[in-house]
Design goal:
Elements (H helix, E strand, L loop, with lengths): L9 E5 L5 E6 H9 L4 E12 L2 E10 L18 H7 L6
InterPro entries: NA-targeting_endonuclease (IPR052892)
């Protein structure tokens, strides 16, 4: 199977109370399982082969601790010397 054939495989990510949180691609689902950040509840029948072995594609994953999504602060004002000093409380960094 090539990458195009596997594009339809998605993993459903659940939180501790089994509520849906996210849908991830099959590569991310395998990474979450391999890094032990998620418990796999159900697998697809399809396997993915690699040089080190073959792996079943996770279909449903449960994340024991919800990973916080870090949101970037949006720059509201243009970055000027005056605005940076105002942001930092007029203190020298």
């Amino acid at each position: 199977f090539g990458d195009d054939d596997l594009s339809g495989f998605r993993g459903l990510v659940l939180d501790l109370s089994y509520r849906p949180v996210n849908v991830v691609c099959w590569k991310r689902a395998i990474c979450l399982e391999f890094m032990e950040k998620a418990d796999v509840l159900e697998y697809y029948d399809q396997t993915v082969s690699s040089p080190s072995g073959s792996f079943y594609i996770p279909a449903v994953l449960r994340v024991p601790q919800l990973l916080q999504v870090v949101k970037r602060r949006r720059v509201k004002h243009c970055l000027s010397r005056k605005n940076i000093l105002f942001r930092d409380g007029f203190s020298c960094q």
